[in-house]
Amino acid sequence: MSDDFSVRIDNAAKNIKVIRSKPLFVMYYYELAGRILDDDVKDVYDEFRRRGWTRDQIHDSLEVVIHCYGGDADASYRVGQILHDFAKDISFLVPFHATSGATLICLGGKQIRLGAYASLSPIDIRIDDTELASIDSFKEFAINCRRDVENILDENESERSTDVESVLLCEMVKQDNALNIGSLYRLSNLTGLYAHRLMYDYMFEKHTNRQAMANKIALSLLKEFPSHNFVLDYHMAQMIELPVKEMNEEESDNTKALISLLDELTTQGVICRDIGVDPEGETLKSPFFRLYPNEGE
């Protein structure tokens, strides 16, 4: 990357630092071509070490600008823990969106600051085109169908029973094999554990009821919403008691300006090189990470 492009990025990041007065870490993934992967764990760690930070001297605070549609749950959890190897009190700044695995990372923050019209998402699991939320919704549909039929039979004083629930569930398994469904539930349980761990250790560290808070929110993010793509804006996030704040306009404008610049440089081929294709044949791009310590660090 040329010095000119690097200076433009640095200036945009420093505009945020002027407002917030804290060390800043930028985690940028280019739209759907950017996914949180295992290699990111090492790359995040290396960026902190490159800037002189070590795990032997943990800093008091850090703010993380995060822009990402998500990725691997294991890698997301490990990235969240790596950030806490270097800083005690972390706040996440979300200019546009931090969804799925990126929402999981944000659960390690003391605070999540959302820009204008920014959003998080549920952390439910998806394999290929199948979402656990859709399977749970279909199970509920099957149960309701059975109850409705039973009510009709009761009204008609019929002694017959119904197998409509089992028939519907068997059809679901035919459409999406049992192995796939089992994998979804295993991954969901794992993601729930990751979410609970991050919130228990960091987000609600000083709450006397941190166990209950972590359990409640993890369950909400896994089970309460009907779709993996459900939009958790500021109001929805507040409803489930996530510690969210709205950025003021200056913060929102400057964080959005940084992401818009990184989008522009990615489309120009300056940053975020192509690193391969995903199983669906879509191009994958590398993320952009950069740490901006305070002066003198």
Task: Present the secondary structure layout.
Elements: H1 3-20, E1 24-28, H2 39-50, E2 59-67, H3 73-86, E3 87-94, H4 101-106, E4 111-114, E5 126-127, E6 130-131, H5 132-155, H6 164-175, H7 178-203, H8 210-224, H9 234-239, E7 244-246, H10 249-267, E8 274-277, E9 283-285, E10 288-292
Parallel strand pairs: 1-2, 2-3, 3-4, 4-7
Antiparallel strand pairs: 1-10, 5-6, 8-9
What would you say about this model in short?
The protein is an alpha/beta fold. The protein has 2 domains: 3-121 and 231-292, 2-enoyl-CoA Hydratase, Chain A, domain 1; 128-228, no CATH class. Helices cover 51% and strands 15% of the residues.
- The figure for the number of domains is 2
CATH class of the largest domain: Alpha Beta
Query: Major sheet: size, sense and barrel closure?
Result: 6 strands, mixed
List how many beta strands DSSP finds. Answer: 10
Mean pLDDT: 84
The ordered string of helix (H) and strand (E) elements is: HEHEHEHEEEHHHHHEHEEE
Distance between the termini: 24 Å
Supply the key terms.
297 residues; alpha/beta; 2-enoyl-CoA Hydratase, Chain A, domain 1; 2 domains; six-stranded mixed beta sheet; two-stranded antiparallel sheet; 10 helices; globular
